[in-house]
Amino acid sequence: MLCLRHCFRAIRAGQLHLYPCGPILLCSFILYAFLTKASNDVYLNETALRLSYGGITNWAHFTTPADVRAECTDGIPLRIAYFTRHTGTLWDWIAVAAHLHVPWTRVNPGLFIEYGINASAAARVWRDVGHVMCHMADILIFSDTIPDARPLLQGGCQTPIVLQVTNRFDYGVLPSDLLDYVALLSDVAQRPHVWWVSNNPYEEEYMVRRGVKLPPAERRMMLRPVGTCLLPDAPRPSGGGSARALSAAEAATRVALILPPYSRHLENTYIMPWLLRHGLTAHVQVYRQHYGGPAVLARHRGVITVPYQTSVMKMYEGLAAGAVFVIPSPELFGALVRKLDMHRMSFCCRELLRDHPDDWPQFMDWYHPDFVSAHVLYDNLKDLKRFLTDHTWSSQLVSEKRRIGTAAMADSRERTLDGFGRLLRAVSQQVCAATSPEQLRARGAVFRAERSLPLFTATSSSSSSSAAAASDDGVSPVRTVLAAGAEGPGRGGGGGIGGGRA
Ligand SMILES: *[C@@H]1O[C@H](CO)[C@@H](O)[C@H](O)[C@H]1NC(C)=O
Ligand SMILES: *[C@@H]1O[C@H](CO)[C@@H](O)[C@H](O)[C@H]1NC(C)=O
What we know:
Keywords: Membrane, Transmembrane, Transmembrane helix. The protein is an alpha/beta fold.
């Protein structure tokens, strides 16, 4: 370049005739070498391509995972596909992914998979779009309803999969299908490339009780929601007909009550009638389902809620935003669940209180030691009435609880973000441990062109997945990944791609 500049300066100065020829020749030579190199770069080495792909005969079903050797070498985060139907879990993921600086895309399985998909329908999805689902990213995460992962788990997709269990793992699975489905998941638990995350302490207990054999502890963790809500702040109070928004001052004097859409919830069957009977409605702002999100709740002097699940996004989002929940004390809650049936009081998990009469709060995030002190608890309706009517005392209590709640949620958030960082480092190391062309090719063809659909049965679980995943050249992808998994460093280990990540 320096020599070219000399040439140009010489030309501009009109001194070319005086300029020695040597440098010009040198310039030409360098330019020639430069251009030749450029043309070398577009040279296609078909010998090398044939060595890599020559053995493939079934091109109709050929697909391949992306070659991420460069990303692995340079510590660049791998791509993630996040499968979820549920907007709350999506918002949570958006926050986690932004914190960890990982590239990702979202797939909504609700648009092409039915709830609780059965084995034969899953086989059909696998046949039709399994290769797209399996290879659309380097790491796949399934959230919300785990049966959405069934096509890939049953089909034998070898891309590392994180099953993020955010509600019951068998959501929508028919009782007649449950045995098969549980057997599939028990088999899946043994696969080194499938990782399990539950987002509250009840999920593992529930899976074990249903007969799922969980994976070893290093491929299983509990990471709670970070409680991010991306709703626009648009309060929409209802009840009483007037749709005007409450002023902040007005909201601060009233306790919020959200009436759930189903009549069997205790808010509908008991609390609302009780408020009316005792003329307490002036202290309360009633909302229906679309209440405007946690920011709206946080403006109130508490939020009356009766847990109907062991955990809901509303709790984490609410605590993060500064909402304070007013819930029955554990003693009252236990007594209510024992006394009232499903028609009077909706609650997902009566078996939890039956099977764990003493330690059930350990499994129920509303009452878990990490969060219970953030809520206002009442032992009886007299207490609740006092909370509603004594504004000075309850306002003070609420601001105290708000401090506890936001601090508890900040701690929980930190644990979750750290946990996801560790998890993704470990999974990325696993991906990077198996990136040779042979390994990619073995994972490439996601199913054989079979006349009959690969059907999962409880008795032949592992063989069906390896058969379905067998590639054209006869290399068993299961074996490849098992070997890769065994070589890969354990969770949380340093080095490799992990070293370069946030
Ligand atoms: C093409 O690839 C083959 C196989 O990897 C290698 O042996 C050969 O040297 C390559 N040729 C060139 C010109 O790079
Ligand atoms: C599986 O689900 C599909 C689609 O809903 C249904 O048509 C089929 O009958 C089901 N198969 C079994 C065995 O239940």
